[in-house]
Design brief:
Rossmann fold, 3-stranded antiparallel β-sheet, elongated
């Protein structure tokens, strides 16, 4: 099977050093395997999106010579496919509608967790102003990760029946990412370890829908000196697309020390050098990397 990888940012702001590192790692892993690298814009949460952010992300990737191999896929163009999948899950009894609020779920769990307690499982709730949840029965879901190891997750105990369509009618992350990875033929997912906890739900949904499970590699995330993941919420600065030193700094963080004679070279030259030396295993069992 040919290698297909992807980078799938949400347009909630510009790329920062952490998201650029994820993009570079996924790009290098694809190139090291002679595969395709795709870019997908996860623009299905309008309240959180920043106008112009999607274009800004793409221009930054272009500035650093991170060239994608197919047209960019915008999740907002796939709403009909998500709705059809949700309808099929409901019709087959593998999903149900739910009107529980987060506060009601917390109250049912006595505030100890966000696990869904199954309140609406056997209720017949009409469409409209209702979320759609996939049924999770007892049993372990095995998650095999190339960097963080193998784990058997009791999804019913930890998460419960999970949302695939939000109460406002928008598709949830779990549904969109699983369907899009299958639609694009993604074979390998390289992303941040902050998404590792979502992977058991993704594997479960892939099995429920009869879709293939890609290979997963969850990278350590970049953190600031306070140990906080770099993000818009923690004040991470946007990457300056004109900063010629940024690619070398990212490669260094990923364990590839750029030789002095290559520092300042065009990103294309650095990426070619790095792809020839890329060993994702060097990041195994690490969950954080402190950013300078």
């Amino acid at each position: 099977m040919s290698y297909v990888g992807r980078f799938a940012p949400s347009p909630t702001g510009p790329l920062h050093l952490g998201s650029l590192a994820t993009a570079v790692a996924s790009f290098l892993h694809a190139r090291a395997h002679g595969g395709e690298w795709l870019v997908r814009i996860e623009d299905i949460d309008p309240p959180r999106e920043v106008p112009g952010a999607a274009d800004g992300i793409l221009r930054t990737l272009e500035a650093f010579d991170l060239e994608w191999d197919r047209p960019v896929l915008y999740q907002s163009s796939r709403l009909e496919a998500y709705a059809q999948a949700a309808d099929e899950l409901l019709a087959s009894g593998r999903a149900f509608r739910c009107r529980c609020s987060r506060s009601e779920i917390r109250a049912a769990n006595e505030g100890e967790s966000g696990r869904y307690p199954g309140t609406c499982r056997d209720r017949q709730i009409p469409s409209g102003d209702a979320a759609v949840r996939v049924r999770v029965d007892a049993g372990l879901v095995r998650v095999v990760d190339g960097l963080q190891g193998t784990s058997d997750v009791d999804l019913a105990a930890s998460l419960g029946d999970y949302v695939v369509v939000r109460r406002d009618g928008l598709p949830a992350y779990h549904l969109a990412v699983v369907l899009d990875d299958a639609e694009q033929g993604v074979t390998t997912v390289v992303r941040g370890v902050d998404l590792l906890d979502s992977t058991a739900a993704h594997v479960h949904l892939q099995r429920t829908l009869g879709l293939p499970t890609p290979e997963y590699h969850h990278l350590p995330v970049l953190v600031n000196r306070a140990g906080q993941k770099l993000s818009k919420q923690t004040g991470a600065a946007a990457v300056d697309a004109r900063d010629r030193s940024a690619p070398a700094r990212v490669l260094d963080l990923l364990g590839l020390a750029v030789p002095p004679q290559l520092v300042g070279e065009r990103p294309r030259v650095l990426l070619k050098w790095a792809a020839e030396r890329w060993q994702i295993e060097a990041l195994r069992d690490r969950r954080v990397i402190e950013a300078p």
